[in-house]
Amino acid sequence: MPTITGTGRMPGNRRARHHERDGKMQTMTICHAPQPGGPETLRFETVMRPRPGPGEVLIRVGAIGVNRLDAMQRAGAYPLPAGANPILGVECAGEVIEVGADVEGISVGMRVAALLSGGGYAEYAVAYWRHVVVVPADWDDVLAASVIETFCTAHETLFELSRLSSGERVLIHAGGSAVGSTAILMAKHIGAEIITTVGREDKATRLRAWGVPHVINYREADFSQVVREIYPDGIDVVEDFIGPAYLAHHISLLRWRGRLAFVGLLSAGITECDVSLVLTKMLQLRGFTLRPHSPAEKAAVVERFRQTWMPVLAGRAIEPAIHAVLPISQAVEAHRMLEAGDNFGKIILCP
User: Which intervals hold domain Enoyl reductase (ER) (predicted)?
Assistant: First the structure.
């Protein structure tokens, strides 16, 4: 029976504060991908329940956010950062049931959302306390699990890297995806001018109902031509989930001091770009992925989310899109749904 632990840093003379002790061997069920492959390779297994080390908390998981990197990891296409938990799942929500030494402001019984180094597809998960956000009392676990990964990613790429501001023009691809739809809500909230792309008309209809003025179905029109018709002098920011296939178009569309953030790679391979345009327009091209951040860097990301977007979310000024809530026994279906692009917004699993 494999044993899943915390960081393993707890000295022998320091003990965590405990909850839910029953004197028996404590186990849990996990969902993982022991061999790379398609969604059907996901397996359930019983393992030892983790224990929090110093600076860590143990969460009884109530809901799990499904992310594209989960599917990439399952397929063997996402190398794990050093020290990452190999169990799938990088975000969860639930109740704190045990607190390690050197934790501040978080106690047993609190309901939280958390970024994880892995280990979310489970009944219990360990998180570094600075990667945990206490959620409002009127939130359920599903709502809590739907926000932290997507809002952290969208905030860092739109606002920290790309410095998007009110009145600027932003092109957000994959508008129906979890991060894409979140980025649209955030950009709308601050008063940016939004253009988005989708591959299905039902998603386009939903985004227009949100008040997005320019929604392009890339299967029916050349998105770059449509953008050029809307804004002949170009745009300011691109939130790019596509990668190589669109890079030349983006460089052409960006205007003076334009910014592009690479957030994903839905296209593969290597491409060429006109470096002279990057130079003469003084463009900035930045890449971002959240999981490999150091614990301190990720803590800063979470703190920016806490300060900037938790008040907005708590006040219901933004309502994140949740596509489906499934029991974890249907994790295979959740991965199939994600890879087929059927979702509009977040897919949530519940143990």
Answer: 37-349
Domain residues for the domain of 191 are 150-287
Q: Which two tokens stand for residue 216?
A: 């392009």
Structure-token pair, residue 21: 């002790």
Assess whether 106 and 202 both reside in one domain.
no
**Res 175 pLDDT > 70:** yes
Contact 244, 269 (CB under 8 A): yes
E strand residue ranges, 100-213:
111-115, 124-128, 132-134, 169-172, 193-198
15 against 62, higher pLDDT: 62
Q: What tokens appear for 323 in the block? A: 């596509």
How far CA 224 is from CA of 196, 197, 229, in Å, comes to 11, 10, 9
- The whole-number average pLDDT for the span 256-283 is 90
* pTM as predicted: 0.91
Q: How far is CA 319 from CA 34, 170, 210, 221, 258, in A?
A: 36, 20, 11, 30, 29
Q: Which residues of 81-107 are buried (b: 16+ CB within 10 A; e: fewer)?
A: eeebbebbbbbbbbbbbbbbbebeebe
